[in-house]
Structures are given as structure tokens and as C-alpha cells.
Amino acid sequence: MTDIAPTADTTAPFTDLPLSPALQATLAQLGYLRMTPIQAASLPLALAGHDLIAQAKTGSGKTAAFALPLLTRLNPRRFAVQAMVLCPTRELADQVAQEIRRLARAEDNIKVLTLCGGTTMRPQRDSLAHGAHIVVGTPGRIMDHLERGSLALDALNTLVLDEADRMLDMGFHDDIVYVASHCPAKRQTLLFSATYPPGIAELAGRFLRDPQTVTLTEQH
Ligand code: ADP
Ligand code: MG
């Protein structure tokens, strides 16, 4: 993970956003005062319900850019998977899950489950049977759970493709297509990528609806 030191000259405060008092309080506790440029560009659009293609480098604060919208929409009293984040690797999925848990900590009963390959299915199936609000995982393993019927997505309202270009590099194209095809049509889809190769455009054209595009290429 990269440390970020957002500077006052480029970014607006989170208090500009229509976030719940609980999320505002959590952000203040975490010391998140000003939005990073990708957050400032994408959060107003994502919170307004738009599908989004967001292009920005690693360490730019993309996790909060999708975590805050999905947490805003989450109903903690509905114990069903309402948001899903696809990531290229277990390490990234763990980082994303950790950041979502940090941002969700004002609600003590939000369950975030990671579903990645390389471990046996059984414990993940048991955890899913106990219920989760948010799943974060790699496309292959999530596809496995869908094929076996251990993951239900009928309550899903937000699908996030994180580091989409890396997922394609790792050969996850068909798995992503399978998973996205099993999501309810009425949902918000947020696609984050450091680069925008043709494969990403193809995925976006297939699974995003009237997406807004946010590009921050000159970031360091
Ligand atoms: P990316 O996904 O773009 O690589 P991350 O979402 O992992 O970036 O964020 C990088 C680091 O910056 C994390 O440690 C995160 O906690 C921190 N961070 C994100 N947004 C802010 C913010 N607005 N203010 C302060 N720190 C932030
Ligand atoms: Mg990231």
C-alpha cells in the first residue's frame, strides 16, 4: 500500500459529499479530511448512482471511491450480499476488505467476506451460509461459488471491478463475464483500472450502463 498525503490545493473535503453522519464521523476519525483527486472526481458521480469507469494509478485512494458509495446504499438489517468487489489477487482482495471494514466500522454488524482461490471451498461455503453483506474476491473463486449455488446475488446492488486491467492480464476475462452475467441487471457497476486497453472497453461496453468516465493520468 502506498501512503497518500492529499494536499489542500487539489482536493475538496469529504464534508462536501452527501454521506451519512456515521460515515462522516468515521472518515474524520481515520484522518481522511480531504478527498484524493480520484475520489473528488468519482464520488459525486458514484453517489448520484452513475456507472463509472475510473482510471487512476495505484495508491490514489480508489478503494474509498467505491467503498463509500456501496456502504451508502447498504442496508445492514438485510443479511444478504448487496455489494461485490472483484480483485485480481488474494492480497488485493484482503486489502480492499480491510479498507471497507475500516470505513464501515460505525456499523458494528456489517459482514465483509473475502472469497479467493488457493484455499478449500468448504470454510467459504460455511461462511456464506452464515450470511454476508459484502463479498470481495477473485473472479475464479466467485464463479466457483456461483456454479455450486453457494453464493446468491439476487440482493446485489453494486458490482465493482477493481484493477480491471490486471484481472484481464491474469486471464480472468471469461470468469468476469460469467460473474457479471449472474448479477441483477438493476445495479450500479463501478470499474477501476490503471490503464484502458481495448479489453476494458469491451467489458465496460458489455456490463456498464451509460457510464461516466473519470481519468486521472497525470497523477504521481
Ligand atoms: P489504490 O486502490 O488507488 O491503490 P487505496 O485505496 O489502497 O489506493 O489507498 C491508498 C492509501 O491511502 C490507503 O492506505 C488509504 O487508507 C489511504 N487513503 C485513501 N484515501 C485517503 C484520504 N482521502 N485521505 C487520507 N488517506 C487516504
Ligand atoms: Mg486499489
From TrEMBL:
Domain DEAD-box RNA helicase Q residues, every copy: 12-40
GO molecular function: ATP binding; hydrolase activity; nucleic acid binding; RNA helicase activity
Keywords assigned by UniProt, alphabetized: ATP-binding, Helicase, Hydrolase, Nucleotide-binding
GO cellular component: cytosol
Residue stretches making up the Helicase ATP-binding domain: 43-214
Residue positions of motif Q motif: 12-40
Family indicated by similarity: Belongs to the DEAD box helicase family.
Listed name of the protein: ATP-dependent RNA helicase DbpA
Lineage: Bacteria, Pseudomonadati, Pseudomonadota, Betaproteobacteria, Rhodocyclales
Shown part of the complete sequence: 1 to 220 of 469
